[in-house]
Structure formats: structure tokens, C-alpha cells
């Protein structure tokens, strides 16, 4: 559930800084005169007046709760998107675009010789049109745009999580090199000429259908959490009422009220503890991609080859030369990354190269070299991605020089994150905008604390005068109100953080409980491409939010602190 | 008069109300001997509370000097005056000025709590509590220690305020109309306590009042009118 520490490089400095700040604060608290702590506690928790600070800490709690919860979920979305996007690619992508690059095998060998590079493989990527004739007679044939991805399967599986996404679940021992091989029985059974194998994405050959899928969940957790929250609230109410009852001996109503509140608190606590949590199966609406093509069915893909010069290959009459191939579906894949799942068709490298017109030989402009669009590179340490991009680029320039290529194709060497930055940056931007908007809530909280501390210092101006008359220092009396704001912030942070972390921990169970109780669908699977609500808690973010709220509440309460510090004791004590 | 513990020389105090200046004290000279019971008598608005605040180091004079035990109080840093108010001076006010959130015992412990860092308080608390209980017992409040000020009568409140003023064994007690808000019987009781402290313990007392009967119990009475000292009796 917690974020990979790699995503929060400043976590340890933040924790160490936070720890040192906490120690400094503790030292300050211990060395400061004791009257401040006692009076601060009295102002905060003494009788009904305590309702004011308790209420004022709620905006902070709500802000912290929302900021951590929403950020964790949006970060979860970003992280899942990142994983899915990463899964179909490799660490470094050498992109020669549609023109392609020659000497790719030699380039791969030289790149593999770079320290820190694990493997490299050429990839063909070209645009095509897929014609799908569903095996169900009642569904009309479909024509969809697609991308032909030519791979060497044994090398491709080393690049990322490609094999994990294949849905036919071939045994572990199944040789990677044969992932695209068409079994003989399939070829024979179809009675068609031999067809190369193809692995289309489920989004391309499937029809999304809503279906109720059974899912095992923990039942009772939502009720437990709600009862525990209620018990905490009732405990606070009970303490207030009990205190009031003690101050009003003989008032039976208060005693009855305190006992009733205590009983309610106990009942809720008992519910929280005793509600059984057990695994149960619920039906949940999911999106099921029903494949319209089965194992061995034919998928026809058509593309127009592009020459090394960038010109479209044409027939003798000048019309574009369309290359069509019938592929036998040997598997399908689902990475969770919609762009890949809805358009990619994986075929053997040689087949794709032929379809894209990159096999070399005699072209319109003389002899052409065999080409590929991309080279994918797997590296041992993803943190070195940028450095290795430069090393790969240098290898390419050296190769171009050695081979004496007059016009070297324009290459883009990038890490997978740079390659997919449009998608990733949109998700990150959405997360950051939401975080920024939620942070604006804290401005309201800051103003509230400033007003409360001002009013508090105004109301308590006689106390301020008394304290100064008894020898308390101006700064000391002022800091009493700073401590007041700090503790309000601390309570808010503690409440908000506990609530958000609990909520995130039990998010699935709470979601089901809310769905069942209110008859709603909080996170419809028919809309999103995830099995569960994603979440990714960043400890660094939690620490940053907590410290920011504490700093804000303390600074905001400086308004009251300043008023108290500047108050002349004789002014405060002059009149009753 | 014995050696002065407190001296005010040419004390002037102005208050500013917008552009207007209001002079409340016009060059007052006053010395208080150690162990003396001095009463400042005057009508409302004569400047007697202002004089008390200046002598008690609560407020700064516009001009003039205050010497406390021979030291020029306003020539010292503010921290010094704060320490004097905490350790050497006790105040009793007409309106008691007890902390409403603290019990009688809490109010009595307040000077000690202002002095003690939190880290040392657990070690000092028992000793301070013992001393506070002795003072409260002497003032007849031992059965009211856990009560809040609002649960006390006027006389009890003033005795609690007196306990707070005496707990740190001050060298001077400043009392600003201590009986002004009490009925005559309770006022007389408070005066008996103050007199007793002066006579038995040798506590220096500076009291301001507009009540001649109260003033009659002092060793010396100075009269103040329109911010000027009239005469001493």
C-alpha cells in the first residue's frame, strides 16, 4: 500500500528533519515555564469552551484527510498507469520513426556491450487496419485501426512484462521463442494456407460487456470502522457531559446524560470490536472484454509500406501498395493500458518487417538496407536511464560514422517515461492540480485559526494581564497562544491522518459497504480499467502535509499571540 | 521611617487619547519603608491606582524614577522587572483577578508555575503545593482548594487572591482597593489578615483606597488629589 521509496527520494531527509524538529520542540516544551502548558490544556480542554478548538480542528482534519486520501488514490492511478505503460515498453526506446534505421542487429550487439545494459531488441511498429470477422455469426465484421508490432518473442519477454499480459496462460515452461508459433493442428484444422501467428490486444478483438463477476471481500470492516469512529465521537461527548455533571452536583439530568453517552460509547466500541469480519463473495459489476476471435481464428491486417526515404510504397500504377496478411490468433493480451490493448497486434519481427516494407533489397532509389523502427533496451538500473540514453546515442553515431551512412535517420533516444510523457504528465498534472485545489482549503483553516486565536486572546486579555502582573514575560504569554494553535493543528493532523490511513487500508471493504448500504456504485468497474480502487500512500507526502498544517496553524495563531504579547497588563486589569 | 524599600521620585504619568494628552500623575515623590503599612488615599480618578502600578513595576512612568530595594527599576531590563514581580512583589486587586480556569490551589501555585520550567515542575510541585496549602490554611481556604473562583464567595475570592500574592513570600504587597468589592464584614476580615501579615511577618504593604476607615488602619496615609500628593499623616 505504501509508495515505493524510490518515488520519494526526500523521504529520509524529511523524516530526519521532522525527527529533529520534534526533538527541538520537545526541548522547547520542557524548558518553557509550566504555566503555559497547564493553561493551554485548560483553554483547549476545559469544559464547554473546548468545543471551539475541537470544532476549529475539524477543517484541518478534513483537509489532511482529503489531501492524503485523494492524493493517495490519484497517485495510485498515476502509479498504475505508469506500471501499465511501462509494461508494454522497455527502459530505453530508440525510435527511428516510420523511416526506420539500418544495421539494427549490430546496433543491438553494440548497445548490449554498454555497461549497465542487459539486453536490446529491434521492434517494428507500423500502422495498419485490422479486419475482424467475429466467430459469432450475429456480429458483423469489424474494421479497426491498429498498430502492428513486430517482435522477436524470446527477446521481447526480456524487455518487460509482456508475457504476464498474455491471457491464454501458457505453462511457465512454454518457450518464449514459440509464443507466436502457430501449432500445426491449428493450421491443419483451418484448411487455410499457412498463416503467421498474431497476438492482438483484447481491446482490439474484444467487445466490452458489463457483467457481474464474483469477488471475495472482507465483510464487516466498514461497519467496524463506522462504529469505531462513532465510539471516539461518543467518548469525547461523554467526557464533556461527565465534566459538566461533576461541576453541577445534584443535577440528575447531567448524570443521566453522561451515563447514556457512556453507554452509547460502549455499545459502539463493542460493535467495533465484536462485528465479525469474514470473507464473503459479492457480485460486482465489471467490464468483461469478450474476445470476438478465438484461438486459431483469422485476423486480417493491412498496411502500406514506407520506404527508407519516407515515401509510400506504390504499385506500378501509382496507387499505394497495400500489404495484407491473414494472421492466426494464437493468444491475446491485456496490459491494462488501453492505448496498447485497443490497438496493438504483436507479430513476428520478420513478418512485420515485410509488411512495413523494411526488409531491404532493391527499392525505387536503389539498394535499400533492412530497417527497423525501434530498438528497445533493457538496463539493470533504471535510475541510470538518462546517462545510458546518451551512451546509446553515441554508439549509434559511431556506427553511422563507421558504416559511412550519407544520411543517417533521425533518432530519438529516450527513457520509457520520456517516451510516454504525454500520458504520464497528464495523470501527474491532474493529481497535482487536485492536491493544489485541496491545499487551498488550508488557507480557510489558517484564517479560521487566526480569528480564533485573536478572539481567544481578546477574551482572555484579563488572564494575560494577571499573568504579566505575576511576572510572566510578554513572549511567554504570546507563545501560550502559539501553543494553542499548534495543538489545534496537531489534533487536526492526528485525526485527519488516522482517518485517511484507516480509510485507505480498508478502502475496498468500505467501498463495498457503502455500495451495499446506499445502493450505489462508488467506483464502477464498467468505467475504469482497474480491478480495485488504486492507492499509493507516500509517507513523504503524509509528513509534508502534517508539517505544513502544523506550521500553518502555529503561524496563524501568531495573530492572537501578538495581541497577547503586546497587551499592557494595566490595560487588561483596569476594569472588571 | 526605616530604610526605604521602595522610592518613587518625580513620577509623571501621561496617557494619550488620540492627539490629546492626559497627565494623571504630576511629579509624585514617595518613599515606603521596609515593613511599613502605607495607604494612599484619594477619590476616584486621583491617580492612586496608576501610582500603585508604577511602584509595583507594572507600568512605566512617563518621567521620574522608581527605586526598588535601591535599584533603579526602569533602568533595568524588562526581564528584571518581570522577575521582581514574580519573586519579590505580591498584588491584590479590587476585582480579585483570579484565573477562572484554575482552581484555588492552581491560582495559588501560579507564581511558582510561571517561574518553573516544565522539566523541573514534577520535582518542585510537591514542595510548592505544601507551601501553597500552608498559606491557604492560614487564610481559611483549606477546604476550598479544588474549587474554581466562580464557586467562591467574594470574601473567599479575595482570600484566594491574597494567598496567591503571599505564596512566594513577597517583600512588598500592593493592594488596590482590596475591600472595595466586599461587604463591610468581609472587608474587615480581609483587612485583619493584611494587618496581621504586616504586624506579625513584617510584610511591607502599599494599599490604595478611597475609604478613610480602611486608611485609618495603616501606619502612614498619603493623600492624592488630581495626581498630586497633598500631605502625609
Question: What would you say this structure looks like, in words?
Answer:
The complex is a heterodimer of chains A (576) and B (233). With 576 residues, chain A is α+β, with helices and mostly antiparallel strands. Chain A folds into two domains: 231 residues, no CATH class; 254 residues, no CATH class. Chain A contains 20 helices and 13 strands. Chain A has a six-stranded mixed β-barrel. The longest helix of chain A has 39 residues. Chain A is elongated and about 105 Å long. Chain A starts with 10 loop residues before the first helix and ends with a helix. The N terminus of chain A is likely disordered. By secondary structure, chain B is an alpha/beta fold. Chain B has a single domain, classed as P-loop containing nucleotide triphosphate hydrolases (Rossmann fold). Chain B has seven helices and ten strands. In chain B, the strands form two sheets. Chain B has a six-stranded mixed sheet, sandwiched between helices. Chain B starts with a strand and ends with a strand. The chains are: A alpha+beta (576), B alpha/beta (233).
- Name the pair of protein chains with the most residues at their interface, and give those residue counts: A-B, 33 and 36 residues
Largest sheet of chain A: 6 strands, mixed, barrel
Measured as a percent range, the helix fraction of chain A is 40-55%
Strand order of the largest sheet of chain B: 6-7-8-3-9-10
Number of strands of chain A: 13
Quickly count the domains of chain A.
Answer: 2
What is the number of domains of chain B? 1
Mean pLDDT of chain B: 90
Second CATH tier, the architecture of chain B: 3-Layer(aba) Sandwich
Give the C-level CATH assignment of chain B. Answer: Alpha Beta
Low-confidence stretches of chain B: none
Share of helical residues of chain B: 25-40%
Low-confidence stretches of chain A: 1-8
Oligomer: heterodimer
Integer-rounded radius of gyration of chain A: 33 Å
Report the sheet-strand fraction of chain B: 25-35%
Amount of beta strand of chain A: 15-25%
Largest sheet of chain B: 6 strands, mixed
Question: How many DSSP H or I helices of chain B?
Answer: 7
